[in-house]
């Protein structure tokens, strides 16, 4: 039942995307559950919503984990919630208190320190593999508004591998949470969810802007918003929200 995260460890100097590398291993039928692929540099790093993920060689942490979920497809959101909660615990070990920006970006005081890209592979109507890709700014933050790094927040430099070792330790140690009570996991994710209790600007796919405040998430992982007193739910592809300027 248990997965050993880090059972296989592959370290690459350069790759297009560690998520692609993991997907190829799975495709070849030669992938072990819990395999970690880490790269110093990605030539085609990918983020959510078709964004790219930039890298500076060997400065920040970029890796993917190939994982065989042992829960049904209806509960596929478990990994997104779990991986974000574990990032919060991990960064706390490095002295930072974080918030999750829905769906699963990791923020420190209004600035993004890392992101998660999960890609699922199905066999028939069952989840077969999940690829959990993480990018964490360890020593450098990209020249973007609202970006930060562990170094920027703490003044300390760490090897990306040191951060990964802590993350894997937590992923392995908290598996009871991953497979345990669904609502408990959801509750923990909601506790970590930032930007609540404030009016925020949202934008729908068609560009339509509206205001609402974050209430939490539903069991599919959609964002629940209070929009003029009525509760509305939105999926990841349907809206984005504009950060308050801090
Ligand atoms: C996001 O914030 O949009 C998600 C970023 C995920 C980036 C990581 S880096 C390692 C893995 N390989 C990729 O191509 N993307 C993820």
> Helix/strand/pairing class, anyone?
alpha+beta
Rg calc: 18 Å
Share of helix among residues? 25-40%
Structural domain tally: 2
What are the secondary-structure elements, in order, as H or E? Answer: EHEEHEEEEHHHHEEEEE
Task: Assign the CATH architecture of the largest domain.
Answer: 2-Layer Sandwich
What is the CATH class designation of the largest domain? Alpha Beta
Round the mean pLDDT to the nearest integer and report it: 95
Give the count of helical stretches. 6
Lateral arrangement of strands in the main beta sheet: 1-2-3-7-6-5-4
> What small molecules accompany the polymer chains?
biotin
* CATH homology superfamily name of the largest domain: Bira Bifunctional Protein, Domain 2
Shape: globular
* CATH topology heading of the largest domain: BirA Bifunctional Protein, domain 2
Number of strands: 12
Q: What percentage of amino acids are in beta strands?
A: 25-35%
Low-confidence stretches: none
Notable characteristics:
five-stranded antiparallel beta sheet, single chain, seven-stranded mixed beta sheet, alpha+beta, BirA Bifunctional Protein, domain 2, 2 domains, 246 residues, binds biotin
């Amino acid at each position: 039942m248990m997965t050993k995260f880090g059972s296989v460890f592959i370290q690459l100097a350069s790759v297009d995307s560690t998520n692609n590398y993991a997907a190829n291993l799975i495709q070849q039928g030669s992938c072990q559950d819990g395999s970690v692929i880490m790269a110093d540099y990605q030539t085609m790093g990918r983020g959510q919503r078709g964004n790219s993920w930039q890298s500076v060689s060997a400065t920040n942490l970029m890796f993917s984990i190939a994982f065989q979920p042992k829960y049904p497809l209806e509960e596929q959101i478990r990994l997104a919630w779990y991986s974000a909660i574990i990032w919060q615990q991990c960064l706390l070990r490095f002295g930072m208190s974080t918030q999750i920006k829905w769906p699963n970006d990791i923020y420190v005081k209004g600035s993004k320190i890392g992101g998660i890209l999960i890609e699922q592979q199905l066999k028939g109507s069952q989840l077969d593999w999940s690829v959990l890709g993480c990018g964490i700014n360890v020593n450098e933050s990209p020249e973007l508004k609202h970006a930060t790094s562990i170094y920027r927040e703490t003044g300390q430099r760490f090897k990306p591998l040191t951060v990964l070792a802590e993350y894997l330790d937590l992923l392995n140690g908290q598996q009871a949470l991953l497979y345990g009570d669904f609502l408990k996991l959801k509750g923990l994710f909601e506790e970590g969810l930032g930007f609540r209790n404030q009016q925020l600007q949202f934008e729908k796919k068609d560009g339509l802007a509206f205001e609402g405040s974050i209430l939490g998430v539903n069991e599919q992982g959609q964002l629940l918003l209070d929009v003029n007193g009525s509760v509305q739910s939105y999926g990841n592809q349907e809206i984005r929200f504009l950060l308050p300027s801090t």
